Amino acid sequence: MQTRRIKIGRLLILLAILFLVTFLWAGGGAIMRSSISKFSPVPAETSAATLSNLTSTWERVHRVFFLKSAIDAKLDKKSYVRLSDTPLALQQAIIAVEDSRFYHHVGFDIEGILRATLVNVQTGAYVEGGSTITQQLVKNLFLSQERTLVRKVEEFVLAIDIELRYSKEQILEMYLNSIYFGSGAYGIGEASTIYFGKPPFHLNLAECAMLAGLPNAPSLTSPYVDFAAAKQRQAVVLAAMTRNSYIGPSQAQEAKLTPILLAK
Questions:
Q1: 94-131: per-residue pLDDT in tens?
Q2: What is the pLDDT of residues 40-57, one digit of tens each?
Q3: What 3-state DSSP class applies to 186?
Q4: Is the four-CA dihedral 244, 245, 248, 251 of positive or negative sign?
Q5: 78-174-214-193 Cα dihedral, nearest 10 degrees
Q6: Closest alpha carbon to 186 in 80, 69, 70
Q7: Residues 166, 70: contact at Cβ < 8 Å?
Q8: pLDDT, tens digit (0-9, with 9 covering 90-100), for 134-166
Q9: CA-based torsion, 210, 75, 71, 8: positive or negative
Q10: Is the domain 83-101+109-129+165-257 a CATH 1.10.10.10 member?
């Protein structure tokens, strides 16, 4: 218990430091400058820019300190699927291909980044990503696709914050309900219906593996767009599941040969 408290304390300190960096990079400087010079006349366009920075900074502050309400506001509850109604094979497929060390990190994973880089170099293709499922959840809910230091730091801050406030099962559940699967399907509930015409609970291994392969490039690998590409991604997922000992080689081969019957 004492060791756990020490670890949580260290994480909270790290979170505070990262948040301070984010605050300064994302507009904290503008707030301080605005406070110092509030009695000095400034051009209208400068005031508008400062107001925009203040609003953006406040949004970032709100996300960190009121994270649960911010997440609840973003999640679509209409088609939300509980993890208990999601096949274990789908959970394992997503973890295997997206974040194999999901249960062993605290939101970001240096070892996972290095391993993913090595795997991608060895295969000559983008097989695994370096971002954790928690980081991807943050991006799905809150962040843009811009590649800046500010956005990356904010991503790390929120990922750690989520890990401190939610269980791994809750994080995986939210991820499955927010990820884009292509062909207009957001979340596993819509994806299962749009592609296979049934709820997630009834998906077989072949279908789970195909769905787990789509978030990597959903607009390109949707089976409605390019069925061959979807099958290739399915094979990548099955190989990852085998490599992580979720299934055996014979199960992977059987899943590859299982006919895929699309809803359309």
A1: 999 999 999 999 888 777 667 666 766 776 665 555 68
A2: 454 545 454 444 454 466
A3: strand
A4: negative
A5: -30
A6: 80
A7: no
A8: 999 999 999 876 767 777 788 888 999 999 999
A9: negative
A10: no
